[in-house]
Amino acid sequence: MLRFFKIIAILEGISYLVLFFNMLFIKPNNLVLYKTLLYPIGMSHGVLFILYVLLAFLLKNAQKWNYKTFGIILVASLLPFATFYIERKYLKNA
């Protein structure tokens, strides 16, 4: 399950960056393309975000994460590039 969480963490980080890219670079230049891409990108990011948080809760006891580590892992889902850091630092043994 830790390996699956690692994959979800990477995919969640990528989807977050793609969502930002769509918002920052495509929206000002092409509003029709922005609106076309917003739903599928947003929906996939939402599903990956929920999976990330649920798997973090499920793995908390199995991995014996203390509250500080668990908090860092949860906050990482809210910051760009942070899930890549989490994957590298806390999930390297998967």
Write the layout of secondary structure elements.
Elements: H1 2-26, H2 31-62, H3 67-76, H4 82-89
3D architecture notes:
By secondary structure, this protein is an all-alpha fold. The chain has one domain. 80% of the residues lie in helices and 0% in strands. It is built from four helices and no strands. Helix 1 packs antiparallel against helix 2 and helix 1 (2-26) packs antiparallel against helix 4 (82-89). The chain is elongated, with a radius of gyration of 15 Å. It starts with a helix and ends in a 5-residue tail after the last helix. The mean pLDDT is 91.
Task: Report the end-to-end length measured between terminal Cα atoms.
Answer: 9 Å
* Computed CA radius of gyration, to the nearest angstrom: 15 Å
* Tally of helical runs: 4
Cα shape: elongated
- For the record, the count of structural domains works out to 1
Mean pLDDT: 91
How many strands, what sense, and barrel or not for the largest sheet? none
Proportion of residues in β-strands: under 5%
Order of helices and strands: HHHH
Describe the structure concisely:
With 94 residues, the protein is mainly alpha-helical.
